[in-house]
């Protein structure tokens, strides 16, 4: 869990309070009642998430996952301004991809959305109060979501998809404003062209593949993770522990738990600011890797190059040395390497980290 939507929830709540105070003859008491009702809805969500943990006595784990780790995640990485700069560069790259089948709809959503914001602000005073209220809430959700992305600590281009629904709505506002006279037909044709390209190039082939799988009796849910899970079910009938360094959904498909909190998401092992919270203060990537390998998982699944260990040479060397001594490559599934631990009797004494810890 991350604090991703906290900014959105708070800003929307403050917006609701401000709008309630502006309405007459409502009192401050009524306005606060509105905000408390809004906050209670969020509180119910937190309570429902908390109850399963509390029922099993895992209150501390809930606090770690929902509060401590997300705060550490957001504070230890990119600053707000750096995140804004990098996300702006990411969006610039999206809009510069002229040959992409999504170019038209990307332009429509992002540039149209920006134009819509300008149109909303330009017409603000002349807008009917009821419509203005709706637009204010839309802007609160848009700005809150943007703030939550930038304050999240990490920078990935696909995070911007969270803004797309709100940008699409402001783009719709702009298109509606443009729809008069002959311009209306230009807007309709442009909109149709923007939607047709991804429909023909992306949507139709995707659904075509699913229909083909349906008619040939193949499961609709498929991919590398599902293939790996099926392979491990066959080759690991006793369900011995596995270490997934990619495609962590395989744990769920196998009904297994990860070997450590640090590997619920494989890349977390490289984030020592998270290890401080999830494992203990001062935990390093190499020490955590040694602890996991000491559990001697039956299978280890990894990409050929483990990107999140690229700046952790000692941990990478530790992994490679253990794989070369104690494991054999038995399968490659869509670029994922599946290693199986060799017969324990064939392992040279002292070669495993379970028998001889590499680090005190």
How would you describe this protein?
The protein is mainly alpha-helical and 360 residues long. Helices cover 61% and strands 6% of the residues. It is built from 13 helices and four strands. A four-stranded mixed beta sheet has the order 1-2-4-3. A hairpin with a 2-residue loop joins β3 (327-333) and β4.
Categorize the overall geometry.
Answer: globular
* N- and C-termini, Cα separation: 32 Å
Judged by helices, strands and strand pairing, the structural class is mainly alpha
Number of strands: 4
The strand order across the widest sheet is 1-2-4-3
- Counting DSSP H or I runs of 4 or more residues, the number of helices is 13
In short:
With 360 residues, the protein is mostly helical. The chain contains 13 helices and four strands.
Give the helices and strands, then pairings.
Elements: H1 6-22, H2 28-55, H3 59-75, H4 80-96, H5 103-122, H6 129-151, H7 164-178, H8 183-215, H9 224-235, E1 242-244, H10 249-254, H11 272-278, H12 285-294, E2 299-303, H13 313-326, E3 327-333, E4 336-341
Helix pairs in contact: 1-2, 1-6, 3-11, 4-6, 5-7, 5-8, 12-13
């Amino acid at each position: 869990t991350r604090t991703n939507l906290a900014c959105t929830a708070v800003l929307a709540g403050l917006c609701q309070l401000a709008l309630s105070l502006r309405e007459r003859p409502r009192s401050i008491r009524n306005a606060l009642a509105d905000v408390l009702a809004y906050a209670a809805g969020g509180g119910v969500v937190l309570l429902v998430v908390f109850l399963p943990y509390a029922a099993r006595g895992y209150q501390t784990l809930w606090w770690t996952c929902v509060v401590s780790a997300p705060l550490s995640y957001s504070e230890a990485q990119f600053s707000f301004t750096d995140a804004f700069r990098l996300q702006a560069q990411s969006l610039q790259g999206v809009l510069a991809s002229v040959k992409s089948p999504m170019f038209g709809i990307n332009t429509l959503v992002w540039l149209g959305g920006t134009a819509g914001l300008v149109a909303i602000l330009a017409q603000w005073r002349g807008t009917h109060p009821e419509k203005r209220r709706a637009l204010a809430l839309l802007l609160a959700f848009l700005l809150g979501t943007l703030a939550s992305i930038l304050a999240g600590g990490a920078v990935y281009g696909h995070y911007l998809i969270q803004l797309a629904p709100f940008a699409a709505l402001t783009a719709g506002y702009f298109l509606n404003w443009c729809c008069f006279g002959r311009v209306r037909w230009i807007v309709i044709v442009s909109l149709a062209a923007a939607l047709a390209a991804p429909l023909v190039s992306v949507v139709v082939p995707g659904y075509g593949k699913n229909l083909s799988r349906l008619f040939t009796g193949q499961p609709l849910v498929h991919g590398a993770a599902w293939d790996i899970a099926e392979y491990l079910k066959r080759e690991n009938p006793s369900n011995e522990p596995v270490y997934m360094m990619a495609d962590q959904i395989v744990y769920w498909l196998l009904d297994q738990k990860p070997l450590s909190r640090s590997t619920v998401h494989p890349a977390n092992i490289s984030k020592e600011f998270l290890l401080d919270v999830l494992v203990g203060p001062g935990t390093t990537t190499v020490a955590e890797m040694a602890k996991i390998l000491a559990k001697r998982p039956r299978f280890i699944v990894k990409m050929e190059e483990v990107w999140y260990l690229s700046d952790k040479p000692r941990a990478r060397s530790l992994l490679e040395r253990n794989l070369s001594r104690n494991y054999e490559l038995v399968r490659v599934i869509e670029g994922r390497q599946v290693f199986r631990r060799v017969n324990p009797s064939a392992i040279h004494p002292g070669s495993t980290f379970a028998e001889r810890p590499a680090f005190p």
